[in-house]
């Protein structure tokens, strides 16, 4: 659920470390059922060491939804089932884990687009949960499009093809998507196209 990386990584104060986040949420093929809201059910997190230019840890937090359930469409897309996410932690506990175990409040972070950041913002507000992240967020999709001179910002799978990188694992699985996005971040860093966090 929240497999831990090497002790030296977790909680370490290292300005080169970046959290790459990808979430999966409850979803439906058409309109959501009456009274249901889209909720995070998986948080994938890969830690990137920009100084060493490598991915140094990967984590997965399953989150138990409170106001929705996993549809057949959602299972087909993500591979996640209701039975699996029922073993997860509550959303507030997941946010606490991000802050306490993964330095989310102090470590800069990135996601592919703004969906993940906005989903956390919405869900934290709706549940009166403390937002776990600091202010240093980078939209990796925007950085990639600019670095490659693309007029349209590509999805993650398309970006991997453009960069000549393999898609590892299953697309739309948070843990695997975070791992793949981290590879794109490192590719951008290798091109000197990854921005330094503010104040660094």
Distance between the termini: 32 Å
* Number of E strands: 5
Q: What structural class should be given to the helix and strand makeup?
A: alpha/beta
Helix content: 25-40%
Biggest β-sheet: strands ordered side by side in the sheet: 3-2-1-4-5
User: Could you say which overall geometry the principal axes of the C-alpha atoms support?
Assistant: globular
At CATH's second level, what is the architecture?
2-Layer Sandwich
Tell me the fraction of residues in β-strands, as a range. Answer: 15-25%
Uncertain runs are 1-12
SS field, number of helical segments: 7
Overall mean pLDDT stands at 93
Q: Output the radius of gyration.
A: 16 Å
What fold name goes in the CATH topology slot? Nucleotidyltransferase, domain 5
CATH class: Alpha Beta
Whole-number total of structural domains: 1
Describe the overall structure.
The chain is of the alpha/beta class and 200 residues long. The chain has a single domain (17-190), classed as Nucleotidyltransferase, domain 5, CATH 3.30.420.10. Helices cover 34% and strands 17% of the residues. It is built from 7 helices and 5 strands, in the order βββαααβαβααα. The chain has helices at 72-78, 82-85, 91-102, 115-127, 140-147, 156-163, 174-190; strands at residues 17-25, 40-49, 54-62, 109-111, 137-139. The chain has a 5-stranded mixed sheet with strand order 3-2-1-4-5, sandwiched between helices. The longest helix is centred in the last third of the chain and has 17 residues, at 174-190. It starts with 16 loop residues before the first strand and ends in a 10-residue tail after the last helix. The model is unreliable at 1-12 (pLDDT under 50).
């Amino acid at each position: 659920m929240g497999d831990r990386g090497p002790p030296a990584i977790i909680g370490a104060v290292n300005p080169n470390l970046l959290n790459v986040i990808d979430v999966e949420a409850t979803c439906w093929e058409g309109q959501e059922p009456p009274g249901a809201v889209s909720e995070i059910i998986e948080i994938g997190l890969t830690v990137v060491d920009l100084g060493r230019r490598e991915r140094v840890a990967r984590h997965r937090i399953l989150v138990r939804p409170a106001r929705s359930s996993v549809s057949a469409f959602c299972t087909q897309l993500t591979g996640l089932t209701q039975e699996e996410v029922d073993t997860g932690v509550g959303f507030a506990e997941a946010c606490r884990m991000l802050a306490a175990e993964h330095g989310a409040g102090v470590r800069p972070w990135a996601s592919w687009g703004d969906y993940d950041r906005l989903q956390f913002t919405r869900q934290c507000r709706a549940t009166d949960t403390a937002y776990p992240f600091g202010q240093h967020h980078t939209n990796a999709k925007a950085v990639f499009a600019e670095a490659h001179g693309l007029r349209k910002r590509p999805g993650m799978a398309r970006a991997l093809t453009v960069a000549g990188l393999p898609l590892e694992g299953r697309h739309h699985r948070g843990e695997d998507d975070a791992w793949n996005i981290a590879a794109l971040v490192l590719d951008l860093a290798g091109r000197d196209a990854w921005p330094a966090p503010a104040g660094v």
